[in-house]
Amino acid sequence: MINGIILQKLQTLEEILLELRSLGRISTEQLQNDWRTWRAVERDLQILVEVVIDVCQRLISLAEQTPSTTGTGAIERCVQLGALSNSEPYRKMVQFRNFIVHRYERVDIAILVEIVNRRLGDFDQFRNEIIAYVQHSSATP
Fold first, then answer.
1. What is the rounded CA–CA span in Å between residue 131 and residue 90?
2. What pLDDT is recorded for position 107?
3. CA-CA distance, 135 to 6, in Å (whole number)?
4. CB atoms within 10 A of CB 130
5. Which of 47, 61, 105, 106 counts the highest number of beta carbons within 10 A?
6. What is the distance between the alpha carbons of residues 35 and 10, in angstroms, rounded to a whole number?
7. What's the rounded Cα separation, in Å, for the pair 79 and 83?
8. Burial (CB count within 10 angstroms: exposed 0-12, middle 13-18, buried 19+), residue 30
9. What's residue 102's pLDDT?
10. Nearest-angstrom CA–CA distance, 83 and 113
11. Residue 141 has pLDDT above 60, yes or no
């Protein structure tokens, strides 16, 4: 059985992925000409990464470990727990999130376009790995 908090976070992840995918393939010109879509994409991507970090922190807590002090640390700890197979795509997510939060005035539209058009599958992979881990963990005494 999936923990209620984790389930809620994964549902949020699904909803936001649906929102972003509903845009279809986007272009830099599209975002440059429509600041509302630009800001919506930016915010949705930030929330997706926050969900990734929150789920990792929750798994760390459920493993009765102290929380990680950084998002990247939470990812690494989940790799150590066996919840995630590889930290690289998730570490890049956290780096992106840190960039848009702390250097928000310089977000390159091309990066947003790249993520929406080519990297949303990383979030699907995250969801699938977490579900598999939680299901396996709850099946093992």
1. 16
2. 84
3. 12
4. 23
5. 47
6. 28
7. 6
8. middle
9. 86
10. 29
11. no
> What global pTM score does this model have?
0.92
3-state SS class at 18? helix
Cα–Cα distance for residue pair 83/94, rounded to 1 Å: 17
- Given a cut of 80, is residue 84 above it in pLDDT? yes
Residue 86 amino acid letter: N
* pLDDT of 27: 96
CA quadruple 100, 67, 119, 79: dihedral positive or negative?
Answer: positive
Cα separation, 102 vs 85, in Å, equals 28
Structure tokens at 34: 């429509």
Could you tell me the two tokens for 125?
């992979």
> Dihedral angle at the C-alpha atoms of 55, 100, 17, 57, nearest 10 degrees?
0
Tokens of 101: 């939060």
Could you tell me the two tokens for 7? 């389930």
Q: What are the structural domains of the chain?
A: 4-139 (1.20.120.580)
Q: In terms of Cα–Cα distance, which of 24, 14, 42 is closest to 117?
A: 24
In tens, the pLDDT along 8-17 reads 999 999 999 9
Closest to 119 in 3D by CA, of 21, 9, 14: 21
